[in-house]
Design a protein that fits this description.
By secondary structure, the protein is of the alpha/beta class. Helix content is about 40%, strand content about 15%. The longest helix is centred in the first third of the chain and has 25 residues. The protein is globular and about 40 Å long. It starts with a strand and ends with a strand. It contains eight helices and ten strands. The site of adenosine-5'-diphosphate has 22 residues, from helix 1 and strand 6.
């Protein structure tokens, strides 16, 4: 096996339908695949977006609320719902899962960081899958990761992971944004994230945040700890088998 400890991040566009409702068919397959991989002896940490999207839908709003308080309320409502879905699907396959909500301050808080690292370790030892998200109801505008790409790279560092896998709504990194220029070409291997940052543009999805810039910068953070990053399409979570078990990686590999 190429890697043992794996951080998988799923974006809003993978977790939610366009209207924010959780994509149950996809989440079901994600939980089944992750449990199966865990049962093969791998250690899996899931970083999930989607709370604000799911909350927005549950509050019957057509798009993310403008005000911070309402957005945080949407996150609070959506986080419960999202965890209910994850817990239920994981339990269907006999897999324990546990929620860890982090705020950006954690990187400067030595004791807090040690606690998170210990909790992650204890959950993995119990063969549970930690499910991590940003604590949106606590985070304020000034101290916020704001996107789970960066958060997932920090989690990969904390967990001393062997690889960070970012699942998005696109097959990988292209030499330009394919939604703007359809002639864009997929890049399979990136030697240094610095060389490709100019190829990215920010997220334009209604529910998500981030975009390609934050994915490349996550790869950069992971690389500083010697952790490679894979960017691939999460529309079929079965792609994780190919990424982890096969030699040829479908998507973009950011080497270390
Ligand atoms: P997620 O919700 O999965 O985090 P995002 O919407 O944040 O997804 O980011 C993925 C989007 O980034 C793609 O759908 C694409 O439109 C955009 N993008 C911008 N530049 C690029 C690029 N160079 N290669 C691939 N995708 C890009």
């Amino acid at each position: 096996m190429k890697w043992k400890r794996i951080v998988v991040k799923v974006g809003t566009s993978t977790v939610c339908h366009k209207n924010g409702a959780p994509d149950l068919r996809r989440l079901e397959k994600l939980c089944r695949t992750l449990t199966d991989l865990k049962n093969m002896g791998l250690e899996i940490i899931l970083v999930t977006s989607g709370a604000i999207g799911v909350g927005t839908n549950k509050m019957h709003l057509s798009q993310r609320p403008e005000s911070i308080a309402k957005r945080q309320a949407a996150a609070a409502i959506g986080q419960c719902e999202l965890m209910r879905v994850y817990d239920r699907f994981f339990m269907d396959y006999g897999c324990l899962s546990g929620q860890i909500l982090l705020t950006k301050g954690i990187t400067e808080d030595t004791k807090g960081r040690e606690n998170v690292i210990a909790t992650l370790g204890a959950l993995l030892e119990m063969e549970a899958i930690p499910i991590v998200n940003e604590n949106d109801s606590v985070a304020t505008e000034e101290i916020v990761y704001g996107d789970n790409d960066t958060l997932s790279a920090v989690v990969a560092q904390f967990a001393n992971a062997d690889v960070l896998i970012l699942l998005s709504d696109i097959d990988g990194l292209y030499d330009k944004d394919p939604s703007i220029d359809p002639s864009a070409k997929l890049i399979s291997v990136v030697k240094n994230p610095e060389d490709v940052i100019h190829m990215a543009s920010d997220s334009n999805t209604k529910l998500g945040t981030g975009g390609m810039v934050t994915k490349i910068s996550a790869a950069k953070i992971a690389r500083t700890q010697g952790i490679p990053t894979v960017l691939a399409n999460g529309k079929d979570p079965g792609i994780l088998y190919d990424i982890i078990l096969e030699d040829e990686i479908p998507g973009t590999l950011f080497e270390v």
